[in-house]
C-alpha cells in the first residue's frame, strides 16, 4: 500500500530529529573527552593506580580540565599516567603542582586531582611530568586498622590484668590502694607539704616586701647590694677566708701529726717527756752549768782587777769604744 504524504513527512521529521540527537550526543561525549578543543599532554607517576581508568576526569582546583589518556605500567611499583589537559590551563598550572588520585564522592569513579603549586614556580609546558602524591590505599588503611584493633585488644587484656591485681592488693600500687594506714600517712604527708608550701610562699612574700623596702641609694644594705666595688671586696674577703680556712686546716693536720709522732714515736721529745730520771739528771746538769757560769764570771771579774791582766782588759775596752765611735 502506497504511503501517504503525511506519513512520509512524519518519517522524515523522525529521521532528522534522530540524526540531530545522535550528533548532539556525539558532540557532548566528545567535548567531555576533550576531543574537539585544543589540548596538551602531561604525565605523572604513581606507585598505585588505585582503579584509575582511561577517560577518568582530571581536575585542577576542583574544576574538570582534562581526562586520563593512557595508563602505562613501567614496573611493579611505577605506574605512569598520561593526561590531556585543556590548553587554557597552560597559564594556570605551575611546575610545582602535585597530582593525586582521588574519587568522585564516596562511591564515585576515580579521578586525578591536581593541587596548585607555589606562585613563584614557572608554568608547565606540554609533555612535562607533574609531581605525584600517593595517598594511602583503602586496603592499607584496613590493614592498619586491623593491626590497631589487635593491639587495642591486647592492651585491654593487659589492662584488665593490672586492674584485677590492683583490686586484689598485689604489687606496690595495689598495696597503696588497699592499705588505709599508708593512705592516711600519704594524706598527712600531702597536708604537710601543702602547709610547707603555704609557709614558703609567706616567707617569699615577706622577703619580697623586705627587698622592696630596702633603700638602694641610702641604706647600708642597698649600698652593699648595689656597690660593685664593695661586692668585689666582699668576694675577695670571702675567698681569702676560704684560703685561710684551708691553710688552718692543713696546719691543724700537721700539728696533729706532730703531736701524734711525739706521743707515739721514739724521738727525743717523747723520750724526755716519759723518762723522769733523765729529766732529773738534765735539771741537775743545767743547775751545775748555771753554777759553773757564775763562778766563771767571778773569776773573769777577778782577772780584770789583777795587776797582771788588768792592762789587757783595759786595752780591750778602749778598742771596743773606738769601734763603737767608728
The helix count comes to 9
Rounded average pLDDT? 81
Q: Identify the overall geometry.
A: elongated
Q: Measured on Cα atoms, how large is the radius of gyration? A: 58 Å
Write a structural description:
The chain is of the alpha/beta class and 326 residues long. The chain is 60% helix and 16% strand. The chain has 9 helices and 7 strands; from the N terminus they run αβββββββαααααααα. The longest helix is centred in the last third of the chain and has 37 residues, at 228-264. It starts with a helix and ends with a helix.
TL;DR of this structure?
By secondary structure, the protein is an alpha/beta fold. The chain has helices at 5-32, 138-167, 171-178, 180-213, 220-226, 228-264, 268-274, 276-305, 310-325; strands at 39-46, 57-60, 63-75, 78-86, 98-103, 110-115, 129-133.
Q: Which features characterize this protein?
A:
326 residues; alpha/beta; seven-stranded mixed β-barrel; 9 helices; 7 strands; 16% strand
Task: Produce the secondary structure layout.
Layout: H1 5-32, E1 39-46, E2 57-60, E3 63-75, E4 78-86, E5 98-103, E6 110-115, E7 129-133, H2 138-167, H3 171-178, H4 180-213, H5 220-226, H6 228-264, H7 268-274, H8 276-305, H9 310-325
